[in-house]
Specification:
The protein is α+β, with helices and mostly antiparallel strands. It folds into 3 domains: 186 residues, 2-Layer Sandwich (Aldehyde Oxidoreductase, domain 4); 164 residues, Aldehyde Oxidoreductase, domain 4, CATH 3.30.365; 313 residues, Aldehyde oxidase/xanthine dehydrogenase, molybdopterin binding domain (Aldehyde Oxidoreductase, domain 4, 2-Layer Sandwich), CATH 3.30.365. Helix content is 31%, strand content 23%. The radius of gyration is 28 Å and the shape is globular.
């Protein structure tokens, strides 16, 4: 680990731009000389993530947001492993927004991947400093001391001192630039299934979610947005609303109109009584069908070629057999169990925010645009470039989230709460209704896919062309390139076509729909070749041992090829995303009426070193639930410029009695960790639809699956 001066830190931050900045000095609060903060002799703070006090309180600070993926356990495990301390003796604490933690944004399955080296180094450096403190105390060689279970021990005499006893002296020592890290075979904690440290608090109701925040004199607000995307308020009659007991104010803000009251029910009733008129700007002509029709009318030639290998045009011309297919994926809502909410308190030129956010950094910045002076706003913009300007006047208190899935990377609800606190002069908790949450999301985009594939004389894929039509390149084309299979001639084309429906990051982003499209089309090519879908894939993955390994493991554990009951089929899919490799086999039964029942899903995952296997299994199970809902149950439909779904009665989720048995098999690996929160989503829809084909002979190229399409099988 290289120690950076403030000047070099600014240079590196400016170059790296967004993302977690991991090159900074591990001392965190250190000055440019590299010395730790010695303002307190009773606390040992060797870096930004660790604090040890004289009373032997070991605190690990977690800078990532917790939304159920287990970072409040898995990230402390990295430090505790190298620090040689029992995880149950550790207290965890959420980090404030501070440049010393780098860019604080939790998404893209990056938490473990980006923390793997820095947090282990944080623990190892602290361990070595404590060993040095003990050796100094005993006047012996450092090599005669070792760390063990929160103590430094003298190997020969058996003397031992706790970390707390050594903290004052350790705090005065120079901070090493680096420390030796353990080899995987030396791990005592990493690789073991560890219960969530915050699990007991969640079970007993002690965990603070955004909706739980209470403050003195707190007002509660709910909000109305224009039902048609892009519309603006033209007139409002709030005379009846203001008569409702408990209603304090009606406030127009940038995004709509909010009713502020002494309690939620008054705010909700007040909102229902508002008479609002909107300028829809002509967007009421938009529907998801009109968007799909427009996408279908585009010429076959893509506007932009994003990637190409070989000559796919010539490869298709020379192919023994050519297959073409069109796929469509719909808008999808995040549908988090906890709707958007935020509590803001603007007071004396300062602001406190309590928010279930995946991006506390961005929450702080958006608040600054409303409460800071022009000069202060300039510094806020600089901060986002160089990550070295503190915004002490704006404090973000990140709460636990009742689901994120990418939705809480956005800060629209934070901006609204800040504006309402400014307008009322009091702390305000803004709570979106389920209907507002469903109809004013940042949706996974609707996309259209055109694919052409050629088979050679050996029934292997000789050419592949994939033309994606949709908005925002990353949200539409992510995961489509590079494909994992050995294809000599490949092309990914893209045509951008935007619409006024807001889109955002949805769990696994572009990989979520491209996983379905690619793995479904591979299955179609296997069928055209008269090949077994598993064997066909295996023959194209000889160059990719990790993908081949998970494919084989999933097939083996699922009993691939063994007999099944009538109207039951198995489907297989494998996909690489976020540094991890996942194969899934789904076993599906289809009734004569077209009802699909998923009986079993077998997952094989290679995510490198498995930090906490229990969390990995939980994430695979969660990914299956999430993906099954999008595959079989729900989509967002647009008519007359507005979302037709409003709640869980018409945006249906997978119910507990519909949940299949999920088996997760983790490949033992010594590779560095990959992501795990998202990689389980991309293969599941294709595994399901490929199983449906095996059971019925019906190909599914448009989601969600409609029973009407299967009732005639």
């Amino acid at each position: 680990m290289t120690r950076l001066s403030r000047r070099n830190f600014i240079k590196v931050s400016t170059i790296t731009g967004t993302g977690l900045m991991l090159g900074f000095n591990l001392s965190g609060c250190s000055d440019d000389s590299g010395n730790s903060d010695k303002s307190s002799t009773t606390s040992f703070n060797p870096n930004a993530w660790l604090r040890i006090t004289e009373d032997n309180n070991i605190t690990i600070i977690v800078a990532e947001s917790e939304m159920g993926q287990g970072v409040m356990t898995s990230l402390p495990m990295l430090i505790a492993e190298e620090l040689e301390v029992d995880l149950n003796k550790v207290t965890t604490e959420r980090a404030p927004v501070d440049p010393k933690f780098g860019k604080q944004k939790t998404g893209g399955s990056t938490s473990i991947r980006e923390a793997w080296h820095p947090l282990r180094q944080a623990g190892a450096i602290a361990r070595d400093m404590l060993i040095t403190a003990a050796a100094t105390t005993w006047k012996i060689a450092v090599s005669d001391c070792s760390a063990n279970n929160g103590h430094i021990e003298h190997t020969i005499s058996g003397k031992r001192l706790s970390y707390g006893e050594l903290a004052p002296l350790a705090a005065t020592l120079p901070i090493p630039e680096t420390a030796f890290l353990k080899n995987p075979e030396e791990f005592r904690l990493i690789g073991k299934s560890v219960p969530l440290l915050n699990g007991p608090d969640m079970v007993t109701g002690k965990t603070l979610f955004g909706s739980d925040v209470t403050l003195p004199d707190l007002l509660v607000a709910t909000i109305a947005h224009c039902p048609v995307f892009g519309g603006q308020l033209t007139s409002m009659d709030d005379s009846e609303t203001r008569k409702i007991p408990g209603v304090q104010d009606v406030v127009r803000i940038d995004s709509g109109v909010a009713v502020v009251a002494s309690h939620y029910w008054a705010a909700h009733k007040g909102l229902q009584s508002l008479k609002l008129e909107w300028d829809t700007k002509g967007n009421e002509r938009i529907s998801d069908q009109s968007i799909m029709d427009r996408f279908s009318s585009h010429p076959d030639t893509a506007n932009e070629i994003l990637s190409q290998t070989g000559d796919p045009g010539a490869g298709l011309q020379q192919a023994k057999e050519i297959l073409e297919a069109f796929y469509t994926t719909p808008f999808q809502a995040h549908a988090t169990m906890e709707p958007m909410n935020c509590t803001a308190h603007v007071h004396n030129g300062e602001c406190d925010i309590w928010a279930p956010t995946q991006s506390p950094d961005d929450a702080q910045y958006v608040a600054s645009t409303y409460i800071l002076s022009t000069t202060e706003k300039l510094f806020a913009k600089i901060r986002r470039k160089i990550s070295d300007v503190r915004l002490d006047a704006i404090r973000v208190h990140t709460t636990q989230m009742g689901g994120g899935f990418g939705r809480r990377l956005e800060t629209d609800y934070v901006a609204e709460a800040v504006q309402l606190s400014l307008a009322t002069g009091k702390p305000v908790k803004l709570i979106w209704s389920r209907e507002q949450d469903m109809q004013h999301d940042f949706y996974r985009p609707l996309t259209h896919h055109r694919l052409s594939g050629g088979l050679d004389t050996n029934s292997r894929i000789s050419a592949w062309k994939h033309h994606v039509i949709g908005p925002s390149r990353g949200k539409s084309t992510g995961g489509a390139e590079p494909i994992i299979y050995a294809v000599p001639a490949f092309q990914l084309g893209y045509t951008e076509d935007n619409y006024p429906v807001p889109t955002g990051y949805w769990r696994s982003v572009g990989s979520s729909h491209n996983g379905f499209v690619i793995e479904s089309f591979v299955d179609e090519l296997a069928s055209s070749a008269g090949a077994d879908p598993y064997q066909f894939r295996a023959g194209l993955l000889e160059h990719s041992p990790r993908n081949l390994a998970v494919l084989r493991l999933a097939a083996e554990k699922s009993g691939w090829g063994s007999p099944l009951a009538e109207n039951t089929g198995r489907g297989i899919a494998v996909f690489e995303s976020y540094g991890s490799h996942v194969a899934q086999v789904a076993e599906v039964t289809v009734t004569q009426s077209g009802t699909v029942r998923v009986n079993r899903v077998v997952c094989a995952v290679d995510c490198g070193i498995a930090v906490n296997p229990d969390t990995i299994k939980a994430q695979m199970e969660g990914a299956v639930v999430f993906g099954l809902t999008a595959c079989l149950k729900s989509a967002i439909n647009i008519e007359k410029g507005r979302v037709m779904q409003s709640n869980f009665h018409d945006f249906r989720l997978l119910r507990i009695d519909e949940m299949p048995v999920v088996e997760t098999h983790i490949v033992v690996s010594d590779e560095e960790p990959g992501g795990i929160g998202e990689p389980g989503v991309p293969p599941i829809a294709a595994a399901i639809t490929n199983a449906i084909y095996a059971a019925t002979g019906v190909r599914i190229r448009r989601l969600p699956v409609s029973p009407a399409d299967l009732a005639r099988h």
